[in-house]
Amino acid sequence: MAEIPAVREMAEIAYQMWTLGWDERNGGNISRILEEAEIAPYVNLRGTGRTIALSFPVPELAGKLFLVTGSGKYFRNIISDPAANLGVIRVTTDGGHVEVLWGFEGNAQPTSELASHFMSHIERLNVDRGHRVVMHTHATHVIAMTFVHDLDEKKFTKTLWQMCTECIVVFPEGVGMLPWMVPGGAEIGRKTAGKMRGQRVVVWPHHGIFATGSTIDETFGLIETVEKAARIYMLAAGHGIKQAIADRELSELAEAFGVTPAPGILRA
């Protein structure tokens, strides 16, 4: 079978995330909505005959195709054996199952965070018809920052904006923040999806980051930017921060680049 371009793209970005130290062992997961035309030349759309029951019905996604990382799979291995570590799935018409069209060889399963992914896909599609990608990773400095910074999302957002000039331009809506929660279940998925109505990034304290976008590159770049700001903060905070980008300067940046900052963060 010819190589599927979308599979190669996800394998390469997953390997890059592993080399950055964000996805140790089987940490992290990615899902991407696929268009039928981009996989039809490579995949039998009638499926493999294998279906997987969902513990949470998603009729909103009925008929949609997804490329998803596997449960318990290591990002570093995806590039060498995509079919064992990734799968193409289609949500059934009743939204209660997914059909495996390709991959998940050896009886592999989709990521244990599939609930969080699907719920976030639903919410983002409601506000952005160009949405396609959900990406979860254990970005090192973002996690570190959640141990030493106030976990109020407005304060957290403002600090990130102040660390790097491009931040307010890249994520003017700010970042969402959850309390610590047990991962892998429907509850954290619901809470994350709720934040996704107004934001594209949600921080899971002491765990990692959930981000969304229209392409793999865009979503990865969004995480890169948040992680870079968190890294600068962690490098600078121990020395005592004497100056940062001021509220007035952040407002000037937003005006110059035509973005609207999330309300209630900057002083007038």
Would you give an account of this structure?
The chain is of the alpha+beta class and 268 residues long. Helices cover 40% and strands 17% of the residues. It has a nine-stranded mixed beta sheet with strand order 2-5-4-3-1-6-9-8-7, sandwiched between helices. The radius of gyration is 19 Å and the shape is elongated. 43% of the residues are buried.
Main sheet makeup: 9 strands, mixed
% residues in beta strands = 15-25%
How is the largest sheet built, in terms of strand order? 2-5-4-3-1-6-9-8-7
Number of helices: 11
What labels describe this entry?
nine-stranded mixed beta sheet, 268 residues, alpha+beta, 9 strands, single chain, elongated
Draw up the topology in text.
Blueprint: H1 5-19, E1 29-34, H2 36-39, E2 50-53, E3 65-69, H3 75-78, H4 82-85, E4 86-91, E5 97-103, H5 114-127, E6 133-137, H6 140-148, H7 153-163, H8 167-170, E7 176-177, H9 186-195, E8 201-204, E9 208-213, H10 216-237, H11 247-257
Short structural description:
By secondary structure, this protein is an alpha+beta fold. It is built from eleven helices and nine strands.
